[in-house]
Amino acid sequence: MIASLKRVIIGRPLKSTELGEQRLNKTKALAILSSDALSSVAYGPEQILIALVAVSMTAFWYSIPIGIGVLVLLTALILSYRQIIFAYPHGGGAYVVSKQNLGKYPGLVAGVSLLVDYILTVAVSVSAGTDAITSAFPSLHEHTVIIAVIFVLLITLLNLRGVTESASILAYPVYLFVIALFILIGAGLYHIAMGGVAPELHTPMGTHVAGISLFLLLKAFASGSSALTGVEAISNAIPNFKSPEPDNAAKTLSAMGLLLAGLFAGIVFLAYYYGISPKAEVTVVSQIAEETFGRNFMYFFIQGTTALILVLAANTGYSAFPLLAVNLAKDKFIPRMFTARGDRLGYSNGIIILAVLSILLIILFKGQTDQLIPLYAVGVFIPFTLSQTGMMVKWIREKPKGWVAKLTINGVGALISFTVSIIFFLTKFSHVWPVLIFLPVLIFVLHRINKHYEAIGEQLGCATSEPVLPIEGNVIILPVSGITHVVEQSLAYAKSLGAAQIIAVYIPFERDEEAVFERKWENFMPDVRLVTLHSPYRSIVQPLIKFVDTVERKARESNHQVTVIIPQFIPKKGWHNILHNQTSFYLRTRLLHHSSVVLTTVPYHLKK
């Protein structure tokens, strides 16, 4: 029943040969890989105003030069990541660039930051989308967390069905959002041009504002730079593109940059000209739409598409997180299970882990987007800085044609990204201090995982000089609890191995049971030695382990192998297992840690 339900929800399994059909064209890739960056225009401009309102509303005119600064940074990042796409066409983005040019640990910093960033991408995007819904329908505000968790589950399900299928569904809301916002910006500019907006609503450019400081302006710039989160996703997901992958990825990145610049500039300008002030339960985009159209169809259309894009921006995380996890797993920094493809050829383990961690974050922060955005943004700008620095090292070392221009582009990107990172730490330390704890902790964990895999490889490799111990015979220990078909079949299997000695072990709790069983055994299997181990404390596992240890020590002296055969009957129905003791499971668990003992389970399947 579970298998049938899985087929209905996720779809039929796909053959490995169908992988090429799961790659994305530029139109679909732009939708699902740019949704995070494009959606950030719904809260990036708002973050600038939140920082400026600390002085007064007269300071809002500074949002224009700050917005221009953000666009300069965007241009530098787009040009930089285009270079990364062609230099590293197999994907990996900041992680691969940093690892290959700066070293193992800078690469780990970039990789861990991006993993956390993609988890936050899902949490922030879904929380922001839920905010847009509750702005239009305030009565739903108390159900924010539940709504957000439901959205995460739905997006997870779509991604488990495969990249192409999720892209086909999610592309429409993304393009609807872009159209809706360009209509909003166009209508707003038309109203301004026609004199439909009173000039006194905004402070004239250049107005002196008491209390303004460079520190505050830098804080507002850093906050507005949160609109650039997700720019790096395309460089991580190059393998998802149709051939030629780098060319298609670069064109998609450029298209995303142009759309993001246009939408961001338009929203910043309209928010300034309309004199919009940030409010706790109504977003800036919602206020602009209401001022432009009133609460009519267009307002709800814009709010609806904004909510959709904010929720579906989480899909960028679902597209990039599993591929980054694959690169880290191939380098043996995280479990190998992340390299396995699921039934629909997606990296389903990465998708599921991402969903679980995102839901935990949403619940922990109670869906409060403003608390998550600083963490989210600083997690992006650390890899930004490292990747640009790594590319600078690459150009200086290799000196290809035109390397000076490339170095300049990456140098500008690295400098601005580093500046934004420092500003975040200085101005929002109360929000971003967890980064200083979880980044070192996660890096240490990944380092230990890497050491474990290296130790495993060193010990398993046949090139090592460790000799293989000779085996001159086999001593078989067979725990028995009675005289049954299970024991009979296990004994037949043991005899087929040609063992030097077979020892049946019976562990009674009472002395009278011991004598009775010995007489039965003599009649049942007289040619097999029986050892009874009285257990006054009613434990089966402990006496057996001690006996195995004793036999193992003696067997080692004569180069004999000890094999423990565990009889086990298998009920016809799975739920019947809860009606029986799990002694065989406990025995296997304990004996697995005995380095010189071979474990064999002989199943006996019940027919009714």
TrEMBL record:
<keyword id="KW-1133">Transmembrane helix</keyword>
<keyword id="KW-0812">Transmembrane</keyword>
<feature type="transmembrane region" description="Helical">
    <location>
        <begin position="432"/>
        <end position="449"/>
    </location>
</feature>
<feature type="transmembrane region" description="Helical">
    <location>
        <begin position="345"/>
        <end position="365"/>
    </location>
</feature>
<dbReference type="InterPro" id="IPR053153">
    <property type="entry name" value="APC_K+_Transporter"/>
</dbReference>
<feature type="transmembrane region" description="Helical">
    <location>
        <begin position="140"/>
        <end position="160"/>
    </location>
</feature>
<keyword id="KW-0472">Membrane</keyword>
<protein>
    <submittedName>
        <fullName>APC family permease</fullName>
    </submittedName>
</protein>
<feature type="transmembrane region" description="Helical">
    <location>
        <begin position="212"/>
        <end position="234"/>
    </location>
</feature>
<dbReference type="Pfam" id="PF13520">
    <property type="entry name" value="AA_permease_2"/>
</dbReference>
<dbReference type="InterPro" id="IPR002293">
    <property type="entry name" value="AA/rel_permease1"/>
</dbReference>
<feature type="transmembrane region" description="Helical">
    <location>
        <begin position="108"/>
        <end position="128"/>
    </location>
</feature>
<feature type="transmembrane region" description="Helical">
    <location>
        <begin position="403"/>
        <end position="426"/>
    </location>
</feature>
<feature type="transmembrane region" description="Helical">
    <location>
        <begin position="371"/>
        <end position="391"/>
    </location>
</feature>
<feature type="transmembrane region" description="Helical">
    <location>
        <begin position="296"/>
        <end position="324"/>
    </location>
</feature>
<feature type="transmembrane region" description="Helical">
    <location>
        <begin position="48"/>
        <end position="79"/>
    </location>
</feature>
<feature type="transmembrane region" description="Helical">
    <location>
        <begin position="172"/>
        <end position="192"/>
    </location>
</feature>
<feature type="transmembrane region" description="Helical">
    <location>
        <begin position="255"/>
        <end position="276"/>
    </location>
</feature>
